[in-house]
Write a structure and sequence with these properties.
The chain is mainly beta and about 425 residues long. The chain has helices spanning about 60-65, 150-155, 165-170, 265-275, 290-295, and strands at about 15-20, 30, 40-45, 80, 85-90, 95-100, 105-110, 110-115, 125-130, 130-135, 145, 160-165, 205-210, 220, 220-225, 240, 245, 250, 315-320, 325, 335-340, 345-350, 350-355, 360-365, 370-375, 380-390. It contains five helices and 26 strands. The longest helix is centred in the middle third of the chain and has 8 residues, at about 265-275. The structure holds calcium ion (4 copies).
């Protein structure tokens, strides 16, 4: 590996974290270079009894990626449970959520239909639900809660599952609409029967929220709090099960780097990561500038509504007795190599960075975490950890671009 320069511009499919020798308990997150439509940081994780909570060992990665796979009648298990009255607070680093016409973000829990999904718009149905409050904030200080019907919530606390009328009455809360595999960038309106969606549900379901409802132009923080209704199974998975937060209307925060066309993406990032034009704000001419497209899950080079993401995992390293590595992508359509290197071996060569010899800790894992590295770097030294895409089961174009701007090819094994 040491004879193969690692181009910085090829970072789209890799993430890096540095674990310091003397501070193994410090949680380190790599800064995010590309703008995407997912939250970047769990600013606060306040699950109730977090040590016993389902999925807690995979936080933050498990709640920062896209929604997990599930069916209309069985919710995904790629979640982290909040427990009764528990909460999770997300922060966006590279973008803000902005109000544009229609819903601006979707919250995914693992609600599901109990029994067969309804076959037509007049059919009643039952939903296994675990409602949560949704609060938003521009600054992490001032919070606004989406309005909901308190009487409907009180009624929901008395029933094991909700029917159609109660489902519609609970709008304004998350965790009430079934979530299942589909286009997770298409918001569902529970009051509208979608003939193309199972059970009339659009996209991948979930609960969509419009900032216009609370009169805010843009926010950078979203908090989900279990509504304390006691629905669902007691125990580790009790309470709201956080799956994913997806931004539909985002705007890059920009940086100090030159941005000639003013679309929020620096010139160099456009050229090397997105392949978009640095001299044209709207590269594909569809009416939305490049920055807003990538901050809202849309391909800046192609119209249409297919979900678009540069698969840039955020990487976290922490632990006390050993170093645990977590990252943000689910494994259903991806596998990862987990690598370790020594910071002392890094050197720059020809405009690229050579990583030096690497130790392969895990090859082609489909998990979102790896635990744990019990070794430690030498005194005053430091290691870095890297997770990179190993298998591109989702097809070409998902590994990012190499320094030639050609699509990167997958490697089946660690080096
Ligand atoms: Ca809106
Ligand atoms: Ca630009
Ligand atoms: Ca551009
Ligand atoms: Ca565009």
């Amino acid at each position: 590996m040491s004879d193969v320069p690692f181009r910085l511009r090829a970072a789209a499919a890799t993430a890096l974290a540095v674990a310091a020798a003397l501070a193994p308990a410090v949680r380190a997150a790599a800064p995010s270079l590309p703008v995407d439509c997912l939250p970047d940081v769990v600013a606060r994780w306040e699950a109730t009894d977090p040590d016993v909570r389902y999925g807690a060992q995979n936080v933050p990665g498990i709640v920062l990626g896209h929604p997990g796979d599930s069916t209309p009648t069985q919710g995904t298990t790629t979640v982290a449970s909040l427990g009764p009255d528990g909460s999770v607070t997300f922060r966006l680093v590279d973008a803000v959520i902005e109000d544009r016409p229609g819903p601006d973000f979707i919250v995914f829990e693992n609600a599901f239909f109990q029994g067969a999904p309804p076959a037509g718009p007049g059919d009643d149905y039952l939903i296994f639900h675990e409602p949560g409050f949704v609060d938003v904030s521009p600054d992490g200080e001032t919070w606004t809660r989406f309005p909901y019907d308190a009487d409907a919530l009180a009624e929901a606390a008395t029933v094991g599952s909700i029917d159609r009328a109660l489902h519609l009455a609970l709008r304004g809360l998350a965790g009430i609409t079934p979530t299942f595999t589909g286009n997770w960038t298409i918001p569902d309106d529970p009051a509208v029967w979608d003939p193309d969606g199972q059970g009339g549900v659009s996209g991948a379901g979930g609960d969509a929220f419009d900032l216009a409802t609370v009169g805010l132009a843009e926010v950078r923080y979203v908090r989900i709090t279990d509504a304390g209704t006691g629905n669902g199974f007691p125990g580790a998975a009790e309470g709201f099960d956080m799956d994913a937060l997806v931004v539909l209307h985002g705007r890059p925060l920009g940086s100090a780097a030159p941005d000639g066309d003013g679309d929020g993406l620096p010139d160099g990032v456009e050229t090397t990561l997105y392949g978009t034009r640095a001299d044209l704000a709207d590269s594909d001419g569809d009416g939305t500038d490049d920055g807003r497209e990538v901050a809202g899950c849309r391909d800046p080079l192609d119209g249409g509504d297919a979900p678009y993401l540069l698969r840039e995992p955020h990487l976290f390293a922490d632990g006390t007795d050993c170093t645990t590595i977590r990252w943000t992508w689910l494994g259903a359509d991806a596998a990862w190599d987990v690598l370790r290197g020594d910071v002392a071996n890094l050197f720059e060569t020809g405009g690229a960075v050579d990583l030096g010899p690497l130790d392969c800790l895990a090859a082609a894992t489909a998990a979102v975490s790896w635990s744990c590295d019990g070794a430690a770097p030498p005194p005053a030294g430091a290691w870095f950890y890297l997770v990179r895409r190993s298998d591109d089961g989702a097809g070409p174009g998902t590994l990012g671009r190499g320094s030639s701007l050609a699509e990167r090819q997958s490697g089946a094994t660690c080096p």
